[in-house]
Amino acid sequence: MAVRGNVKGRPGVLLSVGLARWNETMDIQHLERLRHVLSVLGASGEDVNGATPGCYSGIGFGPELRAGEARGEVLLVDVDRLYHGE
Fold first, then answer.
1. Minimal CA–CA distance to 19: which of 4, 31, 6, 36?
2. Which residue, among 37, 45, 44, has the nearest Cα to 16 in the 3D structure?
């Protein structure tokens, strides 16, 4: 999934690229996949400087991914956050 800003009703800058998994604990390999996607997009001319990788999981996240969240490298959204906010 991709999230873009909106500029006068037109798609704007890329804000986030994410993966969603309902029955899978997400971990660092998911973040690496998103980093690769951002790298490919950047190489093709997309402005990815402000884009944040996002992982959405129905089960949860592994410790390495949680550490990445603590460092501000990834946005993690679990079921509670999805339905109830922060």
1. 31
2. 37
**Residues 70, 72: Cα–Cα separation, whole Å:** 5
| CA angle 23–51–33, rounded 5-degree value | 45
Task: Report how far apart, in Å, the C-alpha atoms of 72 and of each of 43, 54, 84 are.
Answer: 23, 11, 21
The pTM for the full model equals: 0.86
Q: Does residue 81 surpass a pLDDT of 90?
A: no
φ and ψ at residue 48, rounded to 5 degrees: -110, 10
Contacts of 9 (CB under 8 A, 6+ apart): none
Confirm if 28 and 62 have CB atoms less than 8 A apart: yes
Residue 2 CA to chain centroid, in angstroms?
Answer: 8
Q: Helices 63-70 and 28-43: crossing angle, nearest 10°? A: 50
